[in-house]
Amino acid sequence: MTRSKDSDALRAAQMYYLQDLTMDAIARELRTSRSTVSRLLSSARDSGLVQIQIRNPLDTGPELEGRIRMRYAVDVHVVPVLETLNEAETLDRVAMQAARTIGPLVDSNATIGVAWGSTLSAVSRHLTRKITHDSVIVQLNGAGNMHTTGLTYASDIMRRFGSAYGAQVEQFPVPAFFDHADTKRAMWNERSVQRILDLQSRMSIAIFGVGSVDSSYPSHVYAGGYLAEEDLKVLSSSDVVGDVATVFFRSDGSSDGITLNERSTGPSLAELRQVRRRICVVSGASKINGLRGALAAGLATDLILDEGTARRLVSLDSMPQQSR
């Protein structure tokens, strides 16, 4: 919004939400039309000038948030979702909340790492415009496989983030996994690749979902032809429960000895933990094992998840070890 429109939106919001004036009364005072007032109020909400909260006495979200915050030391947002919604509908609700949460955290001169996948694709469609200056969106991991370059899929996500925040977009045009670890090591010495790795090392925010082997709404890395049958067997034998940016881990958060990580193009878990703000978005209770592994690994500082998954997480944490 321009400065004058921003000012008008603020004035309209104050009169509507704080002074209880009708839109007709506001229109008369601002000497404009009722439809313009409606657009100003929408702009005030979209830009974050107005944040609406509904306090439901039956809402268990705050209790769940408190328990998860205490257990995992993360800032957490539990999204209330009806149990009748399917996983795709639940993902859309969580993505909408994630987009609203991310916006205020993005500032000028920021380097923001973004992973690709079903969850981040949904989030990118709900981002609201916020102009920043000298900010960069950098792709966290390569997206190519033996069937596709992955450029279109990943670039659509990066483009939406870049457009929302007026940021420069830096893609990572390498495969999700190299065929050989030696090839990755050689490529990591190339100056064009080192430039992207250097940007990643300066990230102030990383945004990602959790891929899960068990998810009923398949993560893109497991459903998009990125892993051969042999790769899946290796993951199973290594007790892998999930991944972040195509880097895999076990339920206890460990990743040592998982050979596929040596060929992955995502940042190592240790590198990811160096990022100051790490926003993890999860939808669907079937991702619970991957989520618990990611939290055990300390990968998230901020967690956005649906109520059903939050309940499942708290329930499992309260169960005796032998009964899990």
Protein described:
With 324 residues, the chain is of the alpha/beta class. It folds into two domains: 3-46, Arc Repressor Mutant, subunit A, CATH 1.10.10; 61-323, 3-Layer(aba) Sandwich (Rossmann fold), CATH 3.40.50. 44% of the residues lie in helices and 13% in strands. The protein is built from 14 helices and ten strands. The chain has helices at residues 3-18, 23-30, 34-46, 61-72, 87-102, 118-124, 151-165, 181-187, 191-201, 220-223, 229-237, 269-273, 288-296, 307-318, and strands at residues 75-79, 111-114, 136-139, 168-170, 205-209, 211-212, 240-244, 247-250, 277-282, 302-306. Strands 1-10-9-5-2-3-4 form a seven-stranded parallel beta sheet, with helices on both faces. Strand 9, helix 13 and strand 10 form a beta-alpha-beta unit. Helix 1 (3-18) packs across helix 3 (34-46) and helix 5 packs across helix 6. The chain is globular, with a radius of gyration of 21 Å. The mean pLDDT is 89.
Number of domains: 2
Question: What kind of sheet is the major sheet?
Answer: 7 strands, parallel
Q: Please give the count of helices.
A: 14
Q: How are strands sequenced across the largest beta sheet?
A: 1-10-9-5-2-3-4
Overall pLDDT metric? 89
Strand content is 5-15%
Structural class: alpha/beta
Order of helices and strands: HHHHEHEHEHEHHEEHHEEHEHEH
Q: How large is the radius of gyration?
A: 21 Å
Number of strands: 10
Shape: globular
Level-1 CATH class name of the largest domain: Alpha Beta
CATH fold name of the largest domain, please?
A: Rossmann fold
